[in-house]
Amino acid sequence: MKKLVKTVGSSKYGTDMPLDELKPLYLENTSGKQFDGETEAMTFDPSTKTYPRVRHLFFTKQKRILVTGGAGFVGSHLVDRLMKMGHYGNVRNIEHWLGHPNFDLIRHDVVDPFKIEVDEIYHLACPASPPHYQANPIKTVKTSFLGTLNMLGLARRTKAKFLLASTSEVYGDPEVHPQPEDYWGHVNPIGPRACYDEGKRISETLTYSYATHEQVDVRVVRIFNTFGPRMNPKDGRVVSNFIVQALHGEPLTIYGEGSQTRSFQYVHDLVDGLIQAMMGGYTLPINLGNPQEFTISEFATMVQEKVGGQVQIQYLPAVEDDPKKRKPDIMVASKEIAWTPKFSVEQGIEETIQYFKLLHDL
Q1: What angle do CA 237, 163, 264 make, to 5 degrees?
Q2: Options 51, 171, 196, 266, the catalytic residue
Q3: CA distance readout (Å), 342 to 93, 104, 187, 268, 352
Q4: Any residues with CB less than 8 A from the CB of 91 and at least 6 apart, and which?
Q5: Do you find a cis peptide bond into 178, omega within 30 degrees of 0?
Q6: Per-residue pLDDT of the chain (362 residues; tens, 9 = 90+)
Q7: I need a labelling partner for 37 at 20 to 30 A (CA). Which of 112, 206, 338, 359 fits?
Q8: What is the domain count for the chain?
Q9: How many Cβ atoms from other residues are within 10 Å of residue 356's Cβ?
Q10: Sign of the C-alpha dihedral, residues 166, 167, 168, 169?
Q11: Which of 231, 233, 332, 205 is nearest to 276 (CA)?
Q12: A Gene Ontology biological process annotation (predicted)?
């Protein structure tokens, strides 16, 4: 296994910080952590005004940042990082910030218009789990289209920088491997995944239309498979499925022959990419993903080994429109925003297993 990563962020962008500053925010039930000679509890309590420490930025450098979907899996980690960096932010994943003077939790459906004063918008709000978005495809399309339309309108009014969290699903079941940003994709527009795939494609179209005709300063990132603490254990994605099944001694379920490939990135790497994309000046789409490629069978075996014990693998019928291969070309990210993933999949899986053990009290 690669050498363990102990820092996140980028020294070039001034966003670097020790990983140990973030771990207490999601590994809540382990023993206390030493900070400056004082024991800081892993669970932060707003009622006692005990919050994670943040950097103190001069007020001219502080930004009012809106993260849609900020209580979700990826959004909550992004909120953690932005808060630790000293910015203003506008439920369990983020309860440790409730009541902090730099943080506001806003309960609002992005499908409805919204008025607030902001400097930057990270638009992450949209269901990303296949079982979830397929269960309500109309809501998924509305969230993608109307949510993006409303957030772009807000960016236009406030002159805020806007970042769209798009997806590798815009490439569909790709015929080009690995997938570069200039590949147009191979998408079934009426298949079971279309509500999400096409919703993100139209969101990208809207974003660049606002950039061209309304002079909105935009960024678009295409996110490949991401995993880490705070994943919903019931979201139906392969990483959470395998870990939860293995921890409970249940068979790991693989749909199809297991020869389909995926590239998995740890959530801290993704957050680095989101922040560096926002801070950088590149406005065309950027792939954010880990080029290390696994077959689903290989990945299941790795989870088996990390969890330990005797766990069987169960093969079930393949899912319609499930991509056969998925791997990012990240040359643009490396060149334009100095981003490459730092965390090995193995290190990320070990930390994610630790999180799920705490979550399930195992």
Answers
A1: 30
A2: 196
A3: 24, 31, 31, 9, 16
A4: 71, 105
A5: yes
A6: 578 999 999 999 889 999 988 888 888 643 333 333 333 434 455 555 565 666 665 555 678 899 988 878 998 899 889 888 876 555 445 556 566 665 566 666 667 777 888 999 999 988 776 767 777 888 888 888 999 999 999 999 999 999 999 999 999 889 999 999 999 989 889 988 888 899 999 999 999 999 999 999 999 999 999 999 999 888 888 999 999 999 998 999 999 999 999 999 999 999 999 999 999 999 999 999 999 999 999 999 999 999 987 778 999 998 887 888 899 999 999 999 999 999 999 999 999 999 999 887 65
A7: 359
A8: 1
A9: 19
A10: negative
A11: 332
A12: D-xylose metabolic process
Is 196 marked active-site?
yes
Residue 1 domain-assigned (yes or no): no
The domain spanning residue 168 has which CATH number? 3.40.50.720
Residue 312: inside a domain, yes or no? no
Q: Which domain holds residue 118?
A: 20-34+53-229+266-290+323-344
Pairing of strands 64-68, 33-35: unpaired
Could you tell me the pTM of the whole model?
0.87
Q: Which residue has the tokens 């805020």?
A: 160
In-domain check, residue 306: no
